[in-house]
Design brief:
The protein is an alpha+beta fold. It contains 14 helices and ten strands. The radius of gyration is 18 Å and the shape is globular. The protein binds 6-diazenyl-5-OXO-L-norleucine (DON). 6-diazenyl-5-OXO-L-norleucine binds next to loops.
Length: 309
């Protein structure tokens, strides 16, 4: 059997046996209902093969993993002028923190913390109604995954909207500085719906493949972003993709990665693979506990870390 398939099967077996699976996110009630026993992993390769193990075909809420795709989309629309609104430094703070925003005059540290992603959603909204902007994001992700069945879980979107006071605070605060320019409820509508996109590991691994292949999606033979831009998006994922757990993720896994509170992680081994892993239980920082452990084992056993063996 293929060595990679064997490693994925071993990792899924180890995950199934794990006792401490972390805690599912509770601050979004719809996510609190998800069964923490689940685990899936999928690896998309430049030759078009997608290998998987566990619950890789079960859809989950991608949450903040969507921020990689909205950043890619917004960079395509605006180019580097995006960086006048959002920084690209690690925050060293929780994903929903507000403290730095005041000290840094409403300019979020990076596009992956909530404030930064809300600012990016504001940019995507320019010239559109919220439902058009949401449609554009979903179409972009379907195009990347080469799969028209990717959809929004409206129950998750409604759940986040009903419990979105923290994000609303961030958005209002940024609007007072001009980082957010549209009506806050419109911007949050876009942001909550992008977070509520449901995908499975197979789809997510395919959607990230352009980042492993110098900006080109080998499944559709389309150049999604330039090679240079793909390299830079990977750099931001490495430094900022796991919030105040980014250093630990780089230390343990050694790949650019982006996590979400639904328990998904997209990790990129440049030139080699796009990996999606999902397990709903989170560590105290809000990153998938078994997902991070699985990626640590995968990079170790396949020697895929960007820092070598
Ligand atoms: O805005 C929120 O809080 C969620 N929709 C997304 C947060 C998230 O996924 C953080 N990731 N670990």
């Amino acid at each position: 059997m293929d060595r990679l398939q064997q490693v994925l099967d071993e990792i899924a077996e180890e995950a199934a046996a794990a006792d401490d699976r972390g805690q599912v996110a509770h601050y979004i009630p719809e996510l609190a209902k998800v069964d923490p026993q689940q685990f899936g992993i999928a690896v998309a390769l430049p030759d078009g093969r997608v290998l998987s193990a566990g619950d890789a075909a079960t859809a989950f809420s991608i949450q903040s993993v969507s921020k990689v795709f909205t950043l890619s989309l917004a960079l395509g629309k605006l180019g580097d002028s995006l960086w006048s609104r959002v920084g690209r430094e690690p925050s060293g703070n929780p994903f929903n923190s507000i403290v730095q925003l005041e000290q840094e005059k409403g300019r979020p540290r990076n596009p992956f913390i909530n404030a930064g992603a809300i600012a990016v959603a504001d940019l995507i909204l320019s010239g559109h109604e919220p439902r058009e902007a949401i449609g554009e994001i979903v179409r972009f992700i379907r195009y990347l995954a080469d799969d028209d069945t990717v959809r929004i879980d409206e129950r998750v979107a409604a759940s986040e909207t009903a419990h979105g006071d923290r994000n609303a605070s961030l958005a209002h605060f940024m609007r007072s500085f001009g980082t957010v320019t549209h009506a806050v409820d419109h911007v949050l509508g876009v942001y909550f719906h992008q977070c509520a996109i449901a995908m499975n590991c197979l789809q997510l691994a395919r959607a990230g493949l352009f980042l492993a292949c110098q900006g080109r999606n080998p499944l559709t033979a389309s150049q999604v972003v330039t090679a240079h831009r793909a390299r830079r998006i990977n750099a931001i994922m490495l430094m900022c993709g796991h919030y105040d757990g980014s250093g630990e993720f780089a230390y343990r896994v050694g790949l650019p990665g982006k996590s979400g509170v639904g328990g998904g992680i997209l990790a990129i081994a440049p030139g080699t693979a796009s990996i999606a892993v999902w397990s709903p239980g989170l560590d105290p920082v809000g990153n998938s506990k078994l997902g991070s452990a699985a990626l640590e084992q995968l990079t170790k056993r396949m020697e895929w870390s960007v820092f070598g063996a």
